[in-house]
Amino acid sequence: MVLISCNAGSTSLKLGVIEMPGGKTLASEKIERIGSLDSTLNFKDAAGIEWTRNIYIDNHVCAARAALGALKEEGIIKSTSGLDGIAFKAVHGGALTEPTLIDDEVLAVMERFITVAPLHNRVYLDVIRAFRQVAPKLPMVAVFETAFHNTMPEYAYTYAVPLEWKEKYGVRKYGFHGASHSYINKRIQELTGRTDLKVISCHLGGSSSLCALQSGVSIDATQGFSPQSGISMGTRNGDLDVYIIFYLVANGFTLEEINDALYTKSGLKGLSGISEDTRDIELAASRGDKRAELALQVYCYDIVKYIGAYWALLGGLDAIVFTGGIGENSIFIRAKVLRMLEHMGVVLDADKNQNNIPNQRISTEASRVDVYVIRTNEELMVAEKAAEVLSQFEGEDTQHA
């Protein structure tokens, strides 16, 4: 079975062409800066052939078409008939959490949750519809980010609001970044040979969240009803006292203005006034920019605060794992976070951290808790779940379910 596994961001699209079972990646593509004159398409195949092109890509529909075109150009597929399906790392489907074949009803559910995850659901709807146009005969599977967190106990996912809000409207904590946290769970067990671990997975990137893992299952995650909550992120605020919104409305702001500010003008970008990219902010901070320094302090403070909370909930801790674009690459962020945990017995190996080699332990032998940097593979986890769904329908017509 050969699948395309799609991971769409607000300005990016990552695809892996994955052979299942086994998880061999036949090719991978990454399109970045969609909508910018600097947009690029990077291609890499299993033999190591790699190239990057500067190509103007206006939107995600164009990105999907460009990605399929490159796969055909490089001979990975002759046509879409050489594929068995397309898997999408879908974000929010409310009560619809299990991996499922995509039909019009699934798309309608995702439409209803656009207001909760506007940057994500809208993008995925665009990408899914684009692939349905280009490859209408291929079955497509939505692997929701919330599925991995179905193991959270009821008291962990229940908000202290009128109970009928949960029962009637689905107002509860869902947790996100499930594909990444589940991959970290799988890899840390492989690296240690243990399944009874107490782990905090730190997925740090433009969108960031932490997950408490106990013996292989999620017991809590920082993002809640929406991908907005938890720690501060690239352009999103993270946790916020909801009465700030009422206060701003009373002072003349519209809900549309507040929503836009909280999703696109907050977080690292809003605090620094520079960028949501930690590389830019770290450079500015090194030159004495006070706003940049504050942005980094807030971000690291949020991470440490939740590590402490999850350490207590887990009743101890075996490992902390850094992953995601920032977690895997920012030497500065990892060092700053871990220095704030030294009083709890966490000891960083500065040389290993500086080497920035993925899939290794960066704590010393004397450290009370092991610390790892692991390169996540969300596309693989999405492909595995999608293959399980499609295998149930082998021989049946699964076109748009």
Write the layout of secondary structure elements.
Layout lengths: L1 E7 L3 E8 L4 E9 L7 E6 L4 E5 L5 H14 L11 E4 L11 E2 L2 H9 L5 H17 L5 E3 L11 H4 L5 H7 L8 H15 L5 E6 L5 E6 L2 E5 L21 H8 L4 H10 L2 H6 L5 H9 L3 H25 L4 E5 H6 L1 H9 L10 H6 L4 E2 L8 E4 L4 H14 L10
Parallel strand pairs: 1-6, 6-8, 9-12, 12-14
Antiparallel strand pairs: 1-2, 2-3, 3-4, 4-5, 7-8, 9-10, 10-11, 13-14
Helix pairs in contact: 1-3, 6-15, 10-11, 11-13
Plain-language structure description:
- With 401 residues, the chain is an alpha/beta fold.
- It folds into two domains: 2-144, Nucleotidyltransferase, domain 5 (2-Layer Sandwich); 194-378, ATPase, nucleotide binding domain (Nucleotidyltransferase, domain 5), CATH 3.30.420.40.
- Helix content is 40%, strand content 18%.
- The protein has 15 helices and 14 strands.
- It has helices spanning 60-73, 104-112, 118-134, 154-157, 163-169, 178-192, 243-250, 255-264, 267-272, 278-286, 290-314, 324-329, 331-339, 350-355, 378-391; strands spanning 2-8, 12-19, 24-32, 40-45, 50-54, 85-88, 100-101, 140-142, 198-203, 209-214, 217-221, 319-323, 360-361, 370-373.
- It has an eight-stranded mixed sheet with strand order 5-4-3-2-1-6-8-7, sandwiched between helices. The protein has a six-stranded mixed sheet with strand order 11-10-9-12-14-13, with helices on both faces.
- Strand 9 and strand 10 (209-214) form a beta hairpin.
- Helix 6 crosses helix 15 and helix 10 (278-286) crosses helix 11 (290-314).
- The radius of gyration is 21 Å and the shape is globular.
- It starts with a strand and ends in a 10-residue tail after the last helix.
- The mean pLDDT is 93.
